[in-house]
From TrEMBL, chain A:
Top-level taxonomy: Bacteria, Pseudomonadati, Pseudomonadota, Alphaproteobacteria, Rhodospirillales
Limits of the 2Fe-2S ferredoxin-type domain: 3-79
Name of the protein described by the UniProt record: Carbon-monoxide dehydrogenase small subunit
CDD domains: fer2
Organism: Tistlia consotensis USBA 355
Gene Ontology terms for molecular function: 2 iron, 2 sulfur cluster binding; metal ion binding; oxidoreductase activity
Automatic annotation (TrEMBL), chain B:
Organism: Tistlia consotensis USBA 355
Molecular function via GO: iron ion binding; oxidoreductase activity
Pfam family, one: MoCoBD_1
Stored Gene3D superfamilies: Aldehyde oxidase/xanthine dehydrogenase, a/b hammerhead, Aldehyde oxidase/xanthine dehydrogenase, molybdopterin binding domain
Name of the protein: CO or xanthine dehydrogenase, Mo-binding subunit
Species classification: Bacteria, Pseudomonadati, Pseudomonadota, Alphaproteobacteria, Rhodospirillales
Length: 172, 747
């Protein structure tokens, strides 16, 4: 049985036809050419297929494609704004927080979800939030540091822009 | 050719810097294409049918119903493997017997995954189930089911007349251990067992194969060695190497597990039969059941020492099983086990054993971690009984320059003592332990490898440089190659682009293994750059109308030297390249070598852990790894290798292990039940890079990929001993074993 699904992916309207039992991951990868989400296990254990569904972090291998009907899907392909990387992407690059890179999209999607919910996480909070994302190369050290440093950078950038705003208000 | 290198102290400009990796941007944006990310026009989906039995004779396979299913385009079995039917071939597709749970017996290609899945259920295999054995010690016992009827033990006299599960005996040694033990004041003797672990790369094996009716073929695959894939697949399927072009995709981890073939020849055989491209992508369960775990082991270890801590003799018997095919790597274990130490009398006997388990594949320093678990735990026990500091005991016996290893070589400059000192000087070593905490120290050794390598450098007309290497980049090696080419040529790092050339575009390269890439492909890159420089100097000489001998290369420029010094303005690489059409055409450099002088590698790890005596749960709270990198080309990625190997070793020590049922089936073929360390299991891992230059490399580089997995099993075990007051001798040292050890100690 096939299903026609109308959804939004990374802000763009999408319509696709899939089998009723196909997962969101299979449709993203095999029908829509969005291969940035990876299949490491297909059982929700490794997090390499992490995407956001209506603002909630999910393993796309555990979501039926038909469930995307009328909802917002965000994948790794939508994380950068054009040529401008998300601060987490830039930090992962600068801090060597990847080796083979297969788990990296899932870690970035999950880390972004964490910082949106908790902009100032402790190391323990980062480690437990990311415990659903497996990495076999790095021992997690540089990944955890990159997330903590990004949080600190974003916080100081926020404070700076808040400071500039308040300074601007005073001069006005 | 003299392959010795001169390693002069030099001031590096690019090498040693933490440069951003060139492939990074694609990997943080999802653009990088891994094995499963490729599609081809008209592509079919391939799936493999696997044996549910640990050991069974295949009486017949009837695929007629599957072939009649709409959408099914091909079914293959062992009969379609029409080339060499060697162990690799039989492992990829069974012959007359299924040798382990998960052994491939047939495969289908269909127009959709759904049709392929349905077709698998329609293939009828008639099995005669046979007795099985999955444990190494059980497999060696008289009366054990003999799983390979043609296997006669090698390396024993007289040659056995009957087959057994013992594939081979190896012996390594020097001196006279009996004499050495007679001189000892203390002899410590212990036995150890380690369970098989899986490499656990997050990317399952995947490939897309396309065979044309004229026999030409293309293969896209995640592999540690695409030249190996080409040669092996061509041999297994009766193809010409020249007709099979293999392209290495980005690779999502390998750790040795992608140094052989599994689904690649199957996809080629299906494509050949269907006349369409075929993609095969393993499931995680298939990865666990049918691809290379490491050996499981059973080791007896005996060390004799004088009362002041000098080792007088060391002896071990190592029994490894590596699945249903010979080659368990016990010989590597025997060669590595006592190598960190300068010992006069050594004997290590290794037994290679077959069982009904998947065929072993290399896993990071294959054979060494379990050997080090035995030796370093025994040494720790010796230090306790002598009342000596474990670090002092190791420093006292450490192998140094001039030490002759039991496996043959006399070491040139090595870094073990420096690593021990680095650990001794670390803040970690002086941090006081808390309640229920313990501290463990262990050393590790790995051989490192060179091997067949070639690289090409092409100088572009705009002054940029293209570098082609043949060793897949598994952890940032393109960054290291760019750095070494830029260093040698004297141009900015960003001006070099490194690609992994396909098998039609470069000569043969051995696989990315043995910690060899930064060493071998790096050495080759430097030599290719030197050849390009020679040619750049010749072109400059032509431009100036002087002798080529009167030109030198400095800081990325040709400069007139000798009597012509100062007569002409230096010419940059870009200026010479731009004029190349007038001086003889394109400028390139190439080098090919079977590299020797890889430079052995040592590391020392320090582990602090905390035990919950109620639950048996163990938590690593501090971890420091010191390792000799010779010269760290990119320290970020050297640290990454040390941290990653440490984490894998900690997983091996505490959590990971294959669990077989009485039925011979693997019971934990998934990441939920085979639990690799997650972020919340680990602390930060401090990496201390030691640099004792390797005399075999122009920049002093040593491989750093593997050594880091060697010490952790013992470092964790020794820390557990410190925390519990009782020693665990079997991995995984999981909570049930911890609780059992505590209960036994309380009695």
């Amino acid at each position: 049985m096939t299903v026609t699904v109308t959804t939004t992916i990374n802000g763009d309207a999408e319509e696709f036809v899939c089998e009723a039992d196909e997962t969101l991951l299979d449709v993203l990868r095999d029908h829509l050419g969005l291969t940035g989400s990876k299949e490491g296990c297909a059982t929700g254990d490794c997090g390499a297929c992490s995407v956001m569904l209506d603002g909630r972090l999910v393993c796309s291998c555990l979501v039926l494609a038909a469930e995307a009907e009328g909802r917002q899907v965000e994948t790794i392909e939508g994380m950068a704004r054009g040529r401008e990387l998300h601060p987490l992407q830039q930090k992962f690059l600068d801090a060597a927080a990847l080796q083979c890179g297969i788990c990296t999209p899932g870690f970035l999607v999950a880390a972004k979800a964490l910082l949106e919910r908790n902009p100032d996480p402790s190391e323990t909070e980062v480690r437990y939030w990311l415990a659903g994302n497996l990495c076999r190369c790095t021992g997690y050290d540089k990944i955890v540091r990159a997330v903590l440093e990004t949080a600190a950078d974003m916080k100081s950038a926020d404070m700076k822009s808040a400071g500039m705003k308040s300074a601007g208000m005073r001069s006005a | 050719m003299d392959q010795s290198q001169t390693t002069l102290p030099r001031r590096f400009k690019v090498v040693g810097q933490r440069k951003r990796r060139p492939d990074g941007i694609d990997k943080v944006t999802g653009r990088a294409r891994f094995g499963a990310d490729m599609t081809m026009p008209g592509m079919l989906w391939g799936l493999v049918l696997r044996s549910p039995h640990a050991h069974a004779r295949i009486r017949s396979i009837d695929s007629s119903k599957a072939e009649a299913l709409p959408g099914v385009k091909a079914v293959v079995t062992g009969a379609d493997f029409n080339g060499e039917r060697n162990d690799v071939s039989i492992n990829c597709m069974a012959g007359d017997k299924a040798l382990y749970d998960g052994h491939a017996v047939a495969a289908v290609a269909a127009t959709s995954r759904q049709a392929a899945r349905q077709a698998l259920k329609l293939i009828e295999v008639d099995y005669e189930v046979l007795p099985h054995v999955t444990d190494v010690d059980a497999a060696m016992k008289p009366g054990a089911p003999v799983i390979r009827e043609d296997l006669i033990t090698a390396g024993v006299e007289p040659v056995p007349t009957k087959p057994s599960n013992v594939a081979a005996r190896h012996e390594i040694g020097k001196g006279d251990v009996e004499k050495g033990f007679a001189e000892a004041d203390l002899i410590v003797e212990q036995s150890f067992r380690t369970e098989a672990t899986h490499q656990g790369y997050i990317e399952p094996h995947a490939c897309v194969a396309s065979v044309s009716p004229d026999g030409s073929a293309e293969l896209w695959v995640c592999t540690q060695g695409h030249f190996m894939v080409r040669n092996v697949c061509a041999a297994l399927l009766g193809l010409d190497s020249a007709q099979l072009r293999v392209t290495a995709s980005e690779i999502g981890g390998g750790f040795g597990g992608k140094t052989t073939v599994f689904v690649e020849p199957v996809a080629l055989a299906l494509s050949r039969k269907a006349n369409r491209p075929v993609k095969i992508q393993m499931t995680r369960s298939e990865v666990f059941r049918a691809t290379g775990p490491t050996a499981s082991s059973s080791i007896d270890c005996k060390i004799g020492l004088t009362k002041d801590g000098r080792i007088t003799a060391a002896q071990a018997e190592l029994r490894y099983q590596g699945g249903a095919f010979k080659g368990a790597g016990a010989d590597f274990g025997a060669m590595a086990i006592f190598t960190p130490y300068d010992i006069e009398n050594v004997k290590a006997v290794a037994w290679d054993v077959v069982t009904n388990r998947p065929k072993l594949a290399a896993y990071r320093a294959p054979g060494a971690p379990m050997a080090a678990f035995a030796a370093e735990s025994t040494l720790d026990e010796a230090a306790r009984r002598l009342g000596m500091d474990p670090l002092e005991l190791r420093l006292k016996n450490a192998a140094r320059e001039g030490t002759k290893a039991a496996y043959g070589p006399t070491f040139p400059r090595i870094g073990l003592a420096s690593c021990l000192e680095a650990i001794g000087n670390s803040a970690h070593y002086r941090t006081p332990l808390g309640p229920n905490q313990g501290r463990g120290l262990a050393c590790g050794f790995w051989f490192n490898f060179g091997g067949e390598t070639c690289t090409t450098i092409n100088v572009n007309k705009d002054g940029t440089v293209g570098l082609s290497v043949g060793t897949p980049d598994i952890g940032g090696s393109r960054a290291s190659m760019c750095a070494m080419a830029a260093e040698e040529l004297g141009i900015p790092y960003e001006k070099v682009r490194t690609v992994i050339a396909d098998t039609a575009s470069l000569g043969y390269n051995d696989v990315t293994d043995g910690s060899r890439v930064t060493f071998s492909s790096g050495l080759c890159t430097i030599q290719a750059a030197r050849q390009a420089i020679q040619r750049l100097c010749q072109r400059a000489a032509l431009m100036w109308g002087i002798d080529a001998e009167a030109v030198v290369w400095e800081d990325g420029h040709a400069k007139p030297a000798g009597p012509n010094a100062g007569k002409f303005e230096p010419l940059s690489l870009a200026e010479i390249a731009a004029a190349s059409a007038n001086t003889g055409g394109p400028i390139a450099g190439h080098h090919e070598v079977n590299a020797e002088g890889a430079g052995v590698s040592f590391g020392v790890h320090l582990c602090d852990l905390e035990v919950d005596r109620e639950t048996g749960s163990v938590r690593v709270v501090r971890y420091t790894a010191a390792q000799d990198a010779g010269k760290a080309v990119n320290p970020d990625y050297v640290e990454g290798q040390m941290q990653g190997g440490s984490a894998q070793g900690i997983g091996w020590a505490l959590n990971e292990g294959y669990v077989y049922g009485d039925d011979g089936r693997l019971q934990n073929a998934g990441f939920l039940d085979y639990r690799i360390p997650v972020a919340s299991d680990l602390p930060m891992i401090d990496a201390l890079i030691v640099e004792e230059p390797n005399p075999g490399h122009p920049y002093g580089v040593r491989g750093v990929g593997e050594t880091s997995i060697v010490p952790p099993l013992a470092a964790v075990g020794n820390a557990l001993r410190d925390a519990l007051g009782v020693r665990l001798t079997e991995t995984p040292m999981a909570p049930p074993r911890v609780l059992a050890a505590l209960a036994a100690a309380a009695e």
